[in-house]
Structure formats: structure tokens, C-alpha cells
Write a structure and sequence with these properties.
The complex is a heterodimer of chains A (205) and B (533). Mean pLDDT of chain A is 89; it is low at 192-205. Chain A is elongated, with a radius of gyration of 21 Å. Chain A has 205 residues and is mainly α. Chain A has a three-stranded antiparallel β-sheet with strand order 1-3-2. In chain A, α2 packs across α6 (169-180) and α4 crosses α6 (169-180). Chain A has a single domain, classed as Cytochrome c-like domain (Cytochrome Bc1 Complex, Chain D, domain 2). Chain A has helices at residues 2-28, 42-53, 106-109, 113-121, 123-126, 169-180; strands at 139-142, 151-152, 164-167. Chain A has six helices and three strands; from the N terminus they run αααααβββα. Chain B is built from 19 helices and no strands. Chain B is mainly alpha-helical and 533 residues long. Among the domains of chain B are: 44-82 and 361-533, Up-down Bundle (Cytochrome C Oxidase, Chain A), CATH 1.20.210.10; 84-228. The N and C termini of chain B lie far apart (68 Å). Chain B has helices at residues 3-29, 34-39, 67-113, 126-158, 165-188, 201-225, 232-252, 259-294, 301-315, 330-342, 344-358, 364-367, 369-391, 394-400, 404-434, 441-474, 480-485, 488-517, 525-528. Classes of the chains: A mainly alpha (205), B mainly alpha (533). The interface between A and B is large, with 74 and 86 residues. The complex binds protoporphyrin IX containing FE (2 copies). The site of one protoporphyrin IX containing FE (HEM) has 28 residues of chain B, from α8, α13, α14 and α15. Residues 98, 102, 105-106, 108-109, 130, 133-134, 137, 141-142, 406-407, 410-411, 414-415, 419, 494-495, 498, 501-502 of chain B line the site of one protoporphyrin IX containing FE.
Amino acid sequence: MIRTLFVEPVAILALAGVVLVGVPWLLYEDHPPEPGLTPYTPEQATGRATYVDLGCAYCHSQQPRDPSYAPDAERGWGRASTAGDYVYDSPHQLGTMRTGPDLFNIGARQPSVDWHLVHLFQPRAVVSWSIMPSYPFLFEVKDAAGPDDRVVTVPAPWGPATGVVVARPEALALAAYLAGLDHTYPARDLPLRSKAEPAAVGGAP
Amino acid sequence: MDRSFAILFAASFLIEIAALVMLIRAVARDQFGGLAAARMIFHPREFGVSEDPARPAAEDHALPDDLDYQTELAHRAVADQSSKWPVLAFLVSAVFWLNLGSIFGLLTALKFNLPDFLASDAALTFGRLRPVHLNLVAYGWLSMAGVAVSLWLIPRLVRHPLVGGAWAVAGAIFWNVGVTAGFLALLGGWTEGIEWLEFPWQIDSLLVVGGALAGIPLILTIRASGARHLYVSVWYIIAAFLWFPFLFLVANAPGVHFGVEQAAANWWFAHNVLGLWFTPISLAAAYYLIPKIIGRPIHSYGLSLLGFWGLALFYSHVGIHHLIGGPVPTWLVTVSTVSSMMMFVPVIAVAVNHHFTMRGHFGVLRDSPTLKFIVAGAMAYTLTSGQGSLQALRTVNQTTHFTHFTVAHAHFGAYGFASLILFGASYFLLPRLLGREWPRPAWINVHFWLSMVGILLYFVGLSIGGWLQGRAMLDGSVPFEQSVTVTLPYLWSRTVAGTIMTIAHLVYAVHVAWMVFGRAPAAALRANLSEVA
Ligand code: HEM
Ligand code: HEM
């Protein structure tokens, strides 16, 4: 009698684990990347690590939904993502919140590294209603820029009173990661999820 | 609806129902103890007598003259004393983490209102404070308080002193070192980067050791007791202590998970932490304390059975409802959605069982501080679960998925249900363990009402805000901006609610510290009853 209590609950959980984790594991173990997907450059990979460690995913998803289900493509967030889009992603950053927009194709709609740098320094400098945190610690204020410095031009009330804002390497890597987030190539795996054709590939900002 | 989807949906529904029926038949044939088990938490003299050691002393009864009853109380006293130090170690730590976690929750909430507040340092950015909050309340507060309650309940329920209590105290030390290390790691930016699994696996291993040191004594105690009947609370606790390590090890295994599969593992784990770790322990406490406080056995043994096995079968499969609309196969989401709907079965079974046990005894709520917490928590369980099941439907999830609506649900469950029950249990057990009265019984009510007002404001405000946010986002012609601005007032109401809750936790912490470390007023007779003979 008591043995049932020790064996069955674990057996049930193991079964659930096989169905919900084991089968996907087998299914995707050797899953090839989407043909259009390129691996991250070393700089982008560094930027991705910063994205993970600053917890951007708690406000931004990276999983546009199908047009038949939600207007993500209409907002310019791109086609529905597929398993093959994520093969280089670990830890996964799919996210569960959209306090801010989906970023899976932010590089397609906002390829400018300069825009990202200003936005990271002070989101409200470019988007007045933003509630995204500012990340001033990714930047340095210097009296004058050195020869290798990337100067960030911050609009009027938001910059420092004196000196120039210079991006630290973390900011540059993060911006490079964002500018490279582009999964607008055609998807091989899409029929797995939906018969609907992607309404917008890329899309306008 | 797509036809193949509908067929899939119906088929998995049928399979799950068949599985449940088979399971219950199998289990019912070899009974866990039936009515006898439902009554085993009482001495015959206790039927119809309400017991709550958190009540002010005026309620005290006289010492029993009945030898048999005195022996029963002595057994209980021995059980309580055997678990005293382990329970105190886990509970006091939990209360500390609750307060620290609440302060971090509050800071996180303020970040939405004032995005440039504390922006100058990476350690204090939103994306670090949030996981700190989540992990402190999940692994510091809910887990440690849950372990404390389990360590107290099992010796009582199997009538055998805790075996290896010193190991459990060591477990509390390991667990605390783990949570402290995890806390510092997350502030410093060392994270696994996966929600609910942020602690690096090296640190997780401390929790594994700590959990094993606390869990193994429980199992040994049950074995040593030779008990033939196990009360329903014991089923939940045993199962929780088997499930959690299993889950934790599978989900944290380094280097195993990748890409989309990692997301599946992530959410399978995360919902199981809620459903198969926090939930069963809180339900175990409710199943013991409701009958105990009102002096009446649980209404239906059969329903307890259904509630337990239904939970085991369906909760274990719901995880992928966190990825509805995501890049995972439809069948996977379907399995979880169906299981989420099936969760109505065990949830209603538990609700009906508790309701009928309480029926005719709601008057006890007026003067029993513990019961207020437990009953409010049990009601929140039903409501939050019903809400959860609906939220798992594609049509509802479409609106609510990426919004603050989920956060409202999360707090209603983790706070309104799990935390309230743990609060109540701690108010009941500490007088028994320490042989002392609560120094200020009125503060218990203050705590209760602050918590209630806080969580209701939190839940109602964010639910409205989240729903509006979701509707705005779902309409492609509405600019994204609106989905942000529409939530602003509700994000403020959340901050106010969180402040109220944090004050409640401060009251609780001071009271617990006074109780444990202070020289509280002499123990009253009733609080001492269990130490007689
Ligand atoms: C029948 C029972 C329940 C069902 C079917 C259910 C369903 C759900 C669903 C569908 C979500 C995901 C929402 C989304 O991301 O779109 C969710 C989130 C959540 N639920 Fe429940 N729920 C149930 C009970 C509970 C209980 C009892 C608790 C607390 C102990 C709880 C705590 C949470 C938390 C903390 C989250 C947020 C997870 C995260 O995103 O980090 N739920 N629930
Ligand atoms: C002990 C009680 C508490 C528990 C168990 C708890 C639990 C949780 C959980 C599970 C989440 C993750 C939600 C999700 O991912 O959907 C969360 C997030 C959060 N909690 Fe709490 N919480 C508690 C108290 C508080 C308090 C007092 C506040 C103060 C306002 C607070 C504010 C927050 C905030 C701001 C978030 C982040 C939401 C977001 O990312 O959008 N929590 N909490």
C-alpha cells in the first residue's frame, strides 16, 4: 500500500517528463538550423551574454506568433518563428512578457547600431513614452573622445552637462547582437506549425 | 478550429480520463486507510472541539483528566519536540527570505513606475532585481517554509519522532548557503538566464544536498513508524519530496538542453515547481489544519483520493501551456492545454471536500487566526486554479499570455494560496513547538488584513491592467505605445499593494522573532496542552 505511494507519483512524473521533455529532445536533437540562419559572430555572442545577464528577456519575448493567431507580423515583428531559428540559442530567451516589443527581428526593423546605443543609454531620449530602464553603466562620460572611442550623440536634455558619452565594449557588443537579430529569411519549418503563409517577412517598423 | 487539432484535443482528453479512472480503481482497491485515516488526526475527545494555539489565552480549556487522552497528547508533544530545531531553522530562515524577497519585489515594481530609479549600477537594474525577487520568494520563502511545515507535520501524522533531525538542521544550513550564494550570484550577473532556473547549477547542487538532508529524515520517519494508514497530508508531502528533486535534477542538468527543447524543459519544470512542490505542501497543511482547527474529520476520503491522483496525473503535464503560440509543435501544447482543463477535476474535488468539511463551522473563522489564513488560502487555490485552467485555453491565452495578467495570476497563486496557508500553519505550529503564546495575538489579525488587502489590490489592479494591455496588443491597428501607457495606473496600484504586503511581512517577521528569540509571556495552559504527561 505505502509502496504505491512511493512508486506511482514518480512513475507519473517520469511519464510526463518523457512526453513533454523527452520527445521534444529526440525530435530536435539533430534538428538542422534554418538554411538562412547564420551563427553569431564572437561580438554578437558576447552581446547576447549581456542581454541574458541584464535580463532583457523579462520584458521582451523572442517568439513572433503566427498571423492567424496574433498581429505580430503586422506590427513588424516578423514571421512566426520555428525550432530551426533557435539552434544556436543557449540559454533560450523566448520570454513570457511583452512589456516591450518582441525583439526576434529587431535587427531587420532597426539595423542602426547608433540608434540602439542612444536607446540603451536613455530610451526616453528616442521614445518619449518608454518605460524601459536606462543603462548608463554600459557607457562612460569622458571629457573628450579618444581615437578608438565610439561617441554616442545623445539628444539635448538627456546627455551629460559636459563631456561626451562613449560606449563601453559591452554596449557595442549588445548593440551588435540587437542589430544582428534578423530571422526574416524564409522558413523551412513553418508548415510544422501552421499552413498559413507568413503575411509579412520582415515588415515595416 | 483546425480539424486535426480538434481530433487531437478530444483524443488526449479521452486518454487522460481513462488514465484517471484506471488509477483511481487501482488505488481504491488497495485502500490507504479510508475513514479510519480521516479520523486518525484526532483523539475521540477532540471531535467537536476547536483547537487553535494562536488564539489568545482566554480560550483555554482545563487539563484533561482522561489518561488515554493524556497519552495521545504526550505522543504529539514528543513528535513536536523531535522536529523543533529543524522546523525552527527552516521557518526562521524562510521568514527572513520573505522579507528580503518582498523588498526586492517592491524595488522591481518601482522600476516600472520610475524607469530611471537606481539605474546607475548593473546590480540594481530591473533584469537583475526581478530574478532576485522570484528566486528569493520561491526558493527562500515558499520552499523553506514548506519544508518547515512538512517536517512538523510528518512526525505528528505518523506518530513517530522525527528520525535524523540533526541532518535536517544541516539541510537548512546548506539550503541557506545555497540561497545566499544564488542571491549574490544573480545580483552580480552570474545567471543561467532561464526563468525559474536562474541559479547557476553549481549553486543548485547546494540546494540538492540541503533538500536531501531534509527529505530523507521524512522518509525514514515514515518507514520507522511502521504506519499502516497514511493521512492524506502525508501522501502530498511524500509525493512533493519525491517530485521536486526529480524535477530539479532533470531541469538543471548542465549541457543537456538546447534551443526549443530547452524552453519546453524550462516550462515543464517551472509549472511543476508550482504544481508539484508548492501546491501539494500547502494542500497538505490545509488538509490537516482545517479539520484540526474545527474539530471535525475531512468530509470525504474518496474526494481526497481523486484530488491527489488527479493532481499527480494532470499537473505533471501542464507545463507547455506557457508556450502557447510559441515555436513548439501543436500536439505538445495540446497535451498541456487538455491537462490544464482536466485540472478542474482535482481542484473541484479539493474545493468541495474543504467546503463540506467547513460547512456549519464558518463561525470558527471569527476567532481563529490560523483558520482565517487557511480558509482564505484554500479559496484562493480554487479561484486561481480555475483562472489558470481558463488561461490555458488558446483563445484566452491569446490575450493574456505576454501581459501583466499572468503576473497577477502568479501572485494570486503563489501568495494568495501558497503563502497565506504557510502563514497560517506557522501561527499554529510555533506555540506548539515553543510552548509559548504569541506575544501579540492582535498582530496576527493585522498581518492577515494587510496581506488580504494587499493581494486583492495587487490581483485586481494588475488583472485589469494586464487584460487591457493584452487587448491593445492584439489589435494590430493600435500602436504598441498604447499597450504600455494603458498599464501605467495599474503598475502604480501594484506598487501600493506591494507596499502593503511588505508591511504585513514586517509585522510577521517582528512577531516571529519576538516569539522565537524573546522571552514571551508564560505559556498558557492550552498552548501547553500537548506537553502534559
Ligand atoms: C489548475 C491549476 C492552474 C492552471 C491550469 C494554471 C495555468 C497557468 C497558465 C496557463 C499560466 C501561463 C500564462 C502565460 O504565460 O500565458 C500560468 C502562470 C503561472 N501560474 Fe498558474 N495555473 C494554475 C494554478 C496555479 C497555482 C496554484 C499557482 C501557485 C502556486 C500558480 C502560479 C503561477 C505562476 C507563478 C505563473 C507564472 C509563471 C511565470 O511566467 O513565471 N498557478 N498558470
Ligand atoms: C511572498 C510573496 C510573493 C511571491 C510568492 C511572489 C512571487 C512572484 C512570482 C512567481 C513572480 C514571477 C511572475 C511571472 O513571471 O509571471 C513575481 C514577479 C514579480 N513580483 Fe512577486 N511575489 C511576492 C511578493 C511580491 C511583492 C510584495 C511585490 C511588490 C510589489 C512583488 C512584485 C513583483 C514584481 C514587480 C514582479 C515582476 C513582474 C514582471 O516581470 O512583470 N511581489 N513574484
